[in-house]
Each structure stands twice: as structure tokens, then as C-alpha cells.
Specification:
The protein has 331 residues and is an alpha+beta fold. It has helices spanning 2-21, 39-47, 65-73, 149-161, 167-177, 181-192, 198-214, 218-233, 236-256, 260-277, 283-330, and strands at 29-38, 52-54, 59-62, 81-90, 99-101, 113-116, 121-130, 133-143.
Length: 331
């Protein structure tokens, strides 16, 4: 799978070089894509209008407006989907994103296909209903340039957060950051199928735990984090900060599951290691203190509401008992 992705990307880059980079005089043009979008995803896109949008795979588009419109319209009958016609404006002279006209190699030559490489990033422009139909919308997108300030800020932030990682693992972290969890999980599967040392395996398992946590699959997240912890504990002398990272992550999973005492226990284990291995002003130590404080607050709140429910039940029992006595007297 990994080789296919790499080869397709390489082919798109080569075609892009021949078709666009070597012809710098080319003007902006528009391509289209028609598809169905779940209502929840459409609502999120509405809220982020003006922001950035990334697709989680190779993106197939066409220069034929009518073909794309037909694809968008075909989703109207499904009440759970919104038919979307993406209109994408491309300026070849300002973007380094790899895309290519694959008309000559495409099976469907009449579609005039333009294919973008994985995870191309666009800015969301105007969004409007087509013919007043609430289940059919046109969304205008613009292919971003390297000078886009939001894209630069995002890239810099992700670069800092993935520093020190190997190439493939850095890509996994990037996909998680972009919310492309299926792609990240597939990449982790490719990595685990290869020969790796314990350190690398522990890191990949940790990322799988993070993916499952983001997907709210808490038991699976816990399993991956515990496997990562087991591997990292084998090399305790050199992996103590990484062990603390696992403890902290497991604590977060238990918090999500409502098991606050277990969460507190793991947060305290993480803090102990961090205090022993990191300078006192390190951000990880501050994170541990904040996590522990949150758990104490949640535990106290749980105890308070439990006591409140007991008081309420006792009052209810007294009321029922008094009602029974009143009925017995009347009888």
C-alpha cells in the first residue's frame, strides 16, 4: 500500500512539472468535484468558512462542470447527505501543490480529470445553495500557496510538534494533527509490518493509542497505550520521559471513561517521573499538575453529587414512610 501511494504521488509530481512548472505563463483555471457530504461534516465546514480544508486522499476533479454537478445531484435522495459541488480555483504560478491533468492515462477520458496528490490544502470561500435547494450546495475553494499565512502558521506548529521523529512517523503525526485518522492508522499498519526496533515500535503503538483516543474508542486506546508502556519500560533508563508520556496518556483515557481514581493514579506516576527527569519549569510538569488538579476537582464533584443523591433518597424514603403511616391511620 505504501509503495502504491508513493509511486502515484511521484507520477503526479512528474506530470505537474511537465504540464505546469515548465509553462509559467498559464493563467488561473477552475476544476470541479461533485460528491455527497454527511450533514455533520457539512455543518462543520459552514462554521469554518474562510478557513482551510484538506482532503484525506488523492483528490479527483474534472474540468467538466456538468459531470461534477451530476455527481452532486445524485446525493439529493439520501436524507443524511448534502450534495456538494466543489468549484476549485487554481493558480499554477503561485502554488507548489502537486496536481496533474491525467486525461491521457485515465480510463474515463471524457471526464477531463485533474488529479491532486494526497492532503492538498484549500481555502474555503463562498458557500451557496444551487437553485434554492437546501440539499444541493456549491462550495468555492482556492488552492493555497506557500505564502498563505494560515498555512505557514499551521506548518510551523506541526513542524515543532513532530521534531525528532523519523520520516514515516512524522507523517503519521501530521495526519493525526490534520484529523486524517484512517490514513494515520494505515501508515501505522505499514510501519508495524516492517522490521523495527523496540523504540520505534513503542512510538508507533503510542500513536495508534492517540488515534483511537481521538476516535473515542477508549478501550482500544488503552490497549495500545499499555502495549507502548510495556515496551518502553524494558528500556527504563533511557525511556523515562517516554514512560511518563504513556502514564499521562493512560490517565487521560481513564478520565474519558469516567474512572477518575485510576486517572489520578496514572497522572501521579507521570508527575513523579517528570519531576525526577525534567527541569522544574518544564511545560510537561505544568501539564501534570493541571491534570491532577482537574481529577481532584472531578472526584470531589462526584463525591458531592453522590452525597446529594443519598440525602435525596433518604428524604424520599421518609416521605414515603410518612405517607404510609397516614394511610394506615385513615384505614
Amino acid at each position: 500500500m505504501g509503495f502504491l501511494i508513493r509511486d502515484l504521488h511521484k507520477h503526479i509530481v512528474e506530470l505537474h512539472q511537465k504540464q505546469y512548472i515548465e509553462h509559467t505563463h498559464m493563467k488561473s483555471f477552475t476544476v470541479f468535484r461533485g460528491q455527497g457530504l454527511p450533514k455533520a461534516d457539512f455543518d462543520r465546514m459552514m462554521k469554518t468558512q474562510g478557513g482551510l480544508l484538506s482532503f484525506n486522499n488523492f483528490l479527483s476533479t474534472t474540468m467538466d462542470h456538468q459531470v461534477s454537478l451530476a455527481f452532486a445531484e445524485s446525493n439529493q435522495s439520501n436524507p443524511d447527505l448534502i450534495g456538494i459541488l466543489f468549484a476549485i480555483t487554481i493558480n499554477p504560478s503561485i502554488s507548489n501543490t502537486a496536481f496533474a491533468n491525467v486525461h491521457e492515462v485515465s480510463y474515463f477520458k471524457v471526464e477531463k480529470e485533474i488529479l491532486f496528490s494526497m492532503h492538498s490544502i484549500f481555502r474555503i470561500g463562498s458557500m451557496k445553495q444551487i437553485n434554492g435547494n437546501n440539499h444541493l450546495w456549491q462550495v468555492d475553494l482556492t488552492l493555497t500557496s506557500d505564502s498563505d499565512p494560515d498555512l505557514y502558521a499551521l506548518t510551523e506548529q506541526m513542524r515543532k510538534e513532530t521534531e525528532g521523529s523519523t520520516g514515516w512517523l512524522r507523517l503519521v503525526k501530521l495526519m493525526i494533527k490534520l484529523g486524517q485518522y484512517k490514513v494515520a492508522e494505515d501508515l501505522c499498519g505499514i510501519l508495524l509490518a516492517q522490521k523495527m526496533n523496540d523504540d520505534e515500535t513503542g512510538n508507533v503503538l503510542f500513536q495508534l493509542g492517540l488515534i483511537k483516543l481521538r476516535q473515542e474508542e477508549h478501550l482500544e486506546a488503552l490497549t495500545f497505550y499499555e502495549k507502548s508502556l510495556e515496551i518502553r519500560q524494558k528500556h527504563l533508563s533511557s525511556q523515562r520521559p517516554a514512560v511518563a508520556e504513556c502514564y499521562n496518556a493512560i490517565g487521560l483515557v481513564y478520565k474519558k471513561m469516567g474512572q477518575y481514581s485510576n486517572a489520578l493514579s496514572y497522572y501521579q506516576k507521570a508527575l513523579k517521573i517528570r519531576q525526577e527527569t525534567l527541569p522544574p519549569d518544564h511545560s510537561d510538569i505544568a501539564e501534570s499538575y493541571n491534570n491532577i488538579e482537574d481529577e481532584y476537582n472531578l472526584i470531589h464533584m462526584f463525591i458531592f453529587f453522590r452525597q446529594l443523591s443519598i440525602i435525596f433518597l433518604l428524604q424520599l424514603l421518609r416521605t414515603n414512610k410518612n405517607d404510609t403511616r397516614q394511610k394506615e391511620k385513615k384505614a
